[in-house]
Amino acid sequence: MSEIESGFFQSGGYNLAYKIHRNGKDNALLLFHGFQDASDTFLYQFPFLSQHFDIYRFDYRGHGDSDWLREGNYHFIQTLVDVKTFISSFLPEKFHILGHSMGGGIGARFAGIYPERIKSLVCLEGFMSLQSPEFEKKRLKAWLDTIENNEVGTKDRKNKTFSSIDEVASRLKPVYPKLDSSKIRDLAEYLTKKTDHGYQWKNDPLYKRGFPFVFSPFLTRHLWESIDSPTLIIYGKETHLMPENREEILSHFKHLEYIEMENAGHNMHHDQPELLVELLSAFYKKHDLIFNLS
């Protein structure tokens, strides 16, 4: 029988929200959500995933129901620390990973750091074009030139207030053009919190300022090459985030299946939830990672 455990765990002095779907499957799946999203993002895949896995998920710092940063600036290393803390606290020795967007990038790096622990890796996008040193220099300079706006406590942290969930949904509609109104409302409800004055985004506005440095491209490629598990990477054919060096990226994965999903953009798990379930099912069955239910 399925049970959902929810609560908070501590990492680096912050309370981070988590949920564990205990489905009695003895087959653990760790989910990673994307930038400015939350771990509820896979809500349309939960019914399928719960038939085959115990599901583990949490909201990153500054996302969902987790704490916002109290001082300093956000950095990708914080997220890796929180991931390791969550895994050490809750997950078994070996598990599967499924990540979307930023979560796909996090999952791929973690799978390369600890390849012996990963049973399979699925990335729904999550890879960026390789940029020149000059581009990265300009990005760092732009970040430094606005440092006073990048730190906790600045005016840039003001969070917009909406009068109703319907207003939130109307704001999300251009971002999710393929979704019907009921699904847009689902997203609006899990991405916002009720306040005395209306509804606000759960995510910290400061996170949108970005990181001063990217993860080392050379180390990243070494990590990809270290992954030993079956790997599935899916891109939406209509995505606006297709990396220019896609073939170079894919060449670093040893056990890779690559798919471009028809009639889907970057948020394919919302655009084509049923098709994604079909692709996941085929991948997991091909590698004997799940079995037909009687």
TrEMBL record:
It comes from Leptospira stimsonii. Belongs to the AB hydrolase superfamily. This is Alpha/beta hydrolase. GO terms for cellular component: membrane. Signal peptide: none annotated. The keyword NAD does not apply. The keyword Oxidoreductase does not apply. Keywords: Hydrolase. It comes from the Bacteria.
